[in-house]
UniProtKB/TrEMBL annotation, chains A, B:
Superkingdom of source: Eukaryota
NCBIfam families in the record: metmalonyl_epim
Species of origin: Furculomyces boomerangus
Stated name of the protein: VOC domain-containing protein
GO CC, any one term: mitochondrion
The family this protein is said to belong to: Belongs to the methylmalonyl-CoA epimerase family.
Pfam family, one: Glyoxalase_4
UniProt cross-references to PANTHER family, sorted A to Z: METHYLMALONYL-COA EPIMERASE, METHYLMALONYL-COA EPIMERASE, MITOCHONDRIAL
CDD domains: MMCE
Length: 198, 198
């Protein structure tokens, strides 16, 4: 935690705020000029162009920070029934054992589909943080998605600079990596967890 | 479509219904006996054991049918704002142009995160099939997930055999591949689209 706070302070100095990228998918940017880094010219944040992807990633750490979708978390009232659905009906072969996470108030099971995983979550009791989810979603459903970032402090700084609120402070998640939850009201209705994987 | 129906009929004969796999993650199954395929002994559907994963996949086509999560579909009222969020705030570098899918009543944009993609969807007008979603989710949110299968007819047969209803018949999806939607009431509150990728 102290390390994260310190890192944010360092990044605050190093990363200059930029203007938003213009939304223009036909735009072909010139090659990046690494001699002038950091280049604050907004035209240097391109619309997607495969030819420049790696070049840009090497210039701006922000553009290589976002990783894969780690998992999709599904809230369920009956985790055994959900295991049955994913293993016996859908045919998933890599289903973890049931784990108890008392600090998050849930039982969890991971369904590994090769890339993004499915995380099944059942509240341990009524006090579980996910119990309220079932009031709006009586049959359960997708609760949140978890996305990897290579530098959580950088991601926190970038979201704060853009008025994206987080839910609480960065903590150590169930897998032992630093995580933070972003406020779904600022993320198009999607509860997003960011998890640091260097 | 006719090909799919014919395939289902063939698979109905070939695939014997099995008992559900016992939920026991400590169980180490014996090596599969390929000479006796199809082996209907329920102990031959193991809890996940990496040592036997490939061996089993070669025995039962059902256990190699389920693929990766192709994308997470997010419904938004303002796709330009969502593009801004994913590209400029989150740092996604591979964002597609805005596509119009009149047959599905949506504008779509794909955010490629290397593995599972984010699919942004904005209704074209009030008649769009996803317009109703915003009554329960005014700010938008995760609408459905799309999972690859290698054989859609086999997946349809397996879900039907287990009383999982589908929403309509298999059709050709926006990417030109056969797709089907499963009823979220039978899938733990999750709207699942299956897309065939051979």
């Amino acid at each position: 935690m102290f390390r994260t706070v310190a890192k944010v302070a360092i990044i605050k100095k190093a990363v200059q705020p930029r203007n938003p990228a213009p939304v223009n998918n036909n735009y072909n940017p010139p090659p990046p000029n690494t001699a002038n880094y950091p280049n604050t010219n907004p035209t240097y944040i391109p619309a997607y162009n495969p030819a420049y992807e790696n070049a840009y990633a090497s210039v701006d750490p922000f553009l290589s920070n976002l990783g894969h979708v780690n998992y999709i978390a599904i809230a369920t009232r009956d985790i055994e029934k959900s295991i049955h659905f994913w293993r016996t009906i859908m045919g998933a072969t890599k289903v973890s054992g049931k784990m108890t996470n008392p600090e998050h108030g849930v039982y969890t099971v991971f369904v590994d589909l090769g890339q993004t995983k499915i995380k099944l979550m059942q509240p341990i009791d009524e006090k579980s943080p996910i119990s309220g989810f079932f009031q709006q979603n009586p049959t359960g459903g997708i609760h949140h998605i978890c996305i990897n970032v290579s530098d959580l402090a950088l991601a926190i700084q970038k979201t704060k600079d853009n008025n994206i609120r987080s839910l609480g402070e960065a903590t150590i998640g169930a897998h032992g990596f630093p995580v933070i939850l972003l406020n779904p009201q600022d993320c198009g209705g999607v509860l997003i967890e960011l998890e640091e994987h260097k």
